[in-house]
Specification:
Shape: elongated
Number of helices: 13
Order of helices and strands: HHHHHHHHHHHHH
Structural class: mainly alpha
Oligomer: single chain
Distance between the termini: 43 Å
Radius of gyration: 22 Å
Length: 299
């Protein structure tokens, strides 16, 4: 006759534990994830990066639509802080898709430095990951921006949506180096903290809740994310090129003269990317590795 006691004990041991992982366990998980990401085949990595660029672009589309103000249709403009809060909330869609659906995002992959520091991943594989993922993110973001331009969504609200998109893009192309760099640092500290929090999660709901507040904070505060900007600025430039439409709306596109590829790359993408690396790899990855993964602190 089967031992009923053993059966009860076995069922108890198989119960799902919904408690979140503690920080030391999160650090070990971050290392293991870094090793897996660093060893992904190049083709798979690139395609997943293209998806991530598109996913962040979807969050940016949602954000641009929500923060668009009065288009001449009587809509009341919300206060600045409320508008930024709403924009940040909906932009969270991008990282939710990356984490839950699965994709490779350059800014989140800055945490791979934890695996490198523990000598579980080589520096070469880290840099290879970053280069391939960055390129894939760029392709996915710009392609999404061009598709959105073809939809003519910018004509909504009597063209107000397109003007909003161009204003967002122009402001990014007019940043000085230090503000762009430091906004990049602050941004990816929050993005990587969102990813870090997800290492504690056991359910999809946990992950979504962990993502929303850090991402909302970085968008509301006006920080700079290199992959998001790979969508925001190109779509603004594409919309600027629809001169026939703007001539009929009384909008002078000459006011957006800063919207050029050289300005985008040199005044925004370069300093923001450097800032993102510092914020994610140093201020989150390296610090948490020192606290929990350094040989002196491992239990």
């Amino acid at each position: 006759m089967p031992d009923a006691t053993n059966g009860v004990e076995r069922r108890a041991s198989e119960q799902v534990n919904l408690d979140g992982w503690l920080p030391p366990q999160m650090a070990t998980k971050a290392e293991d994830v870094g090793v897996k990401k660093g060893n992904l085949p190049a083709g798979q990595k690139f395609l997943l990066a293209v998806l991530a660029g598109a996913f962040i672009g979807l969050g940016a589309i949602f954000c641009t639509t929500v923060v668009t103000g009065n288009g001449g249709d009587g809509v009341i403009q919300l206060p600045f802080g409320v508008m930024k809060l709403l924009g940040g909330l909906v932009f969270s869609l991008g990282l939710i898709l990356v984490i839950v659906a699965g994709a490779e995002l350059f800014t989140g992959n800055n945490l791979l430095v934890m695996a490198v520091a523990s000598k579980k991943l080589t520096v070469f594989k880290l840099l290879r990951n970053w280069v391939i993922v960055y390129a894939g993110n760029f392709v996915g973001s710009v392609l999404t921006a061009y598709i959105m331009y073809l939809t003519a969504q910018y004509a909504m609200a009597n063209g107000a949506l397109g003007v909003t998109a161009m204003k967002i893009a122009a402001a990014k192309c007019e940043l000085a180096f230090i503000p762009a760099l430091t906004r990049g640092i602050m941004c990816n500290a929050l993005v990587c903290l969102a990813v870090w929090l997800c290492f504690s999660c056991r359910t999809t709901t946990d992950k979504i809740l962990a993502i929303v507040f850090p991402i909302t904070a970085f968008v509301a505060a006006g920080f700079e994310h290199c992959v998001a900007n790979m969508y925001f600025v190109p779509v603004g430039m594409f919309i600027k090129g629809a001169t026939g439409f703007w001539a009929g709306k009384g909008v002078d596109v000459a006011q957006f003269a800063s919207l050029t590829w050289p300005n985008f790359i040199m005044k925004n993408l370069v300093p923001v990317t450097l800032g993102n690396i510092i914020g994610g790899a140093v201020f989150v990855g390296a610090i948490y590795w020192t606290i929990y993964c350094h040989p002196k602190h491992r239990s």
